[in-house]
Amino acid sequence: MAPTAAVAGGGVEAEAEAEALLGLLQRVQSEALRAFGPNDFDPKLYVDLPLAADASAAAALASLPRAAPSRGEMEAYISRYFALAGSDLVAAADPPDFERDPPGFLPRVERAEARAWALEVHALWKDLTRRVAPAVAARPDRHTLLPLPGRVVVPGSRFREVYYWDSYWVVRGLLVSKMYETAKDIVLNLVYLVEKYGFVLNGARSYYTNRSQPPLLSSMVLDIYMATGDMAFVRRDEEFASKLSTAAKEKFYHQVASTAETGWDFSSRWMRDSTDMTTLTTSCIIPVDLNTFILKMEQDIAFFAKLIGESTTSEIFSEASKARHNAIDSVLWNTDMEQWLDYWLPTDGNCQGVYQWKSISQNRAIFASNFVPLWLNAQHSGLEQFVDEAKSVRVMRSLQKSGLLQPAGIATSLSNTGQQWDFPNGWAPLQHLIVEGLLRSGSGEARELAEDIATRWVRTNYDAYKATGAMHEKYDVVTCGKSGGGGEYKPQTGFGWSNGVILSFLDEFGWPQDKKIDCLSS
């Protein structure tokens, strides 16, 4: 499964070389900021630069301009010692499982312009599919990009590498597109990262090797199995899961607790003062969505183990999921609000130890994550529903009264802080998680709301695409057809998880001939 080329220097030496390159690129980043100024400055660009073919890290370091270099000096230096960011990925041509209009693709999308657009979104997989260049495995000391064995699907724009939780919605979209082998490649790449590093990295870069993202790998495996019935694929995953030691799991869950690893980077959700980034306290928060994802993972592993006859393992993880279910309802559920709320631990003692539960420690600010546990209704039809129909309806009513429902979808929060995971932005993963939960709640009224939210989201994506020619990373849910903004970098296009969610919604709900798709119809 690992790339066949040897790692130059091997082991500790290779790690030291990777750290030396990253240190150099961080110096380049600092000098570039001085030379080019903060306007339109993207710090990620510089740490993604591979060394030029005829350059060495030592020579690049020795020649680094200092003492306030001019723009021209810095441009000449970068051109001399580095290749273009992203040049260490190569186009995968047409993926072998890609068809322009695959058999069985979106059979219930009847309206002509909706179907034509869906096929254009489907075709974007070709543009986003890459392979890591062989040179990366041969000389990892010259790249921050990490070698991976299979095809990759990148999110798009500045995101020139695989990302963990983005990949879940990419896989969901690929399954709609009948691109089963590409979906499997994505999962096998993530499994390779587990085997090499002990957990799935935030992204496939050397600067991400100390953190992860929400644990959705088992969900990808389950969805691929449900679509293909590939038992060998499930057995492979069980073998990989068994390699995770208890220590590795504990490290993994601890890592997920930092802000970037939540996926919500950045949001007032993690700040004691929503106007002050220095008050981030992420590691002292018990998050609703993280516990939802871990419970789902425990259920998945129990399911896989039972499927292949590992009854003891199945029972262990089944009991763990039941215990977590009880903990979510006892610690995070708020009866007055009919929502699940993040729980804030006291910051004394580094948030370690045993604490008495206090209702005042629940964060009563409203975020879309407060409704994510509904997603567990959509999983494992053989299991008891996470939330029964009556409680699901109460949660639905709470969502309707929350202020999060906007003309173009579900807002991430009610706080307009300028952070990208706050109002007025809406994100594809959150729409999908909540819609799927409502859809599978057993309530006809909740299903209607799910379809209404999906319709709003499809229309805003469609109009933005028609206006800009691109799918966007996030959208302004106050105004239909407007892409989102805010945050630490320019808004991005491409875009992996947005494409996946649109295809999933169209697959689930269809689009009748008499239903208009543009924003004017909303």
TrEMBL record:
Keyword set, alphabetical order: Glycosidase, Hydrolase
Pfam families on file: Trehalase
GO molecular function, one term: alpha,alpha-trehalase activity
Biological process terms in GO annotation: trehalose catabolic process
Gene3D superfamilies assigned to the protein according to its UniProt record, in alphabetical order: 1.50.10.10
Reactions this protein catalyses: alpha,alpha-trehalose + H2O = alpha-D-glucose + beta-D-glucose
InterPro entries (UniProt xref): 6-hairpin_glycosidase_sf, 6hp_glycosidase-like_sf, Glyco_hydro_37, Glyco_hydro_37_CS
EC number: 3.2.1.28
Family matches, as PROSITE patterns: TREHALASE_2 (PS00928)
PANTHER family, A to Z: TREHALASE
Family: Belongs to the glycosyl hydrolase 37 family.
Protein name per Swiss-Prot or TrEMBL: Trehalase
Organism: Oryza barthii
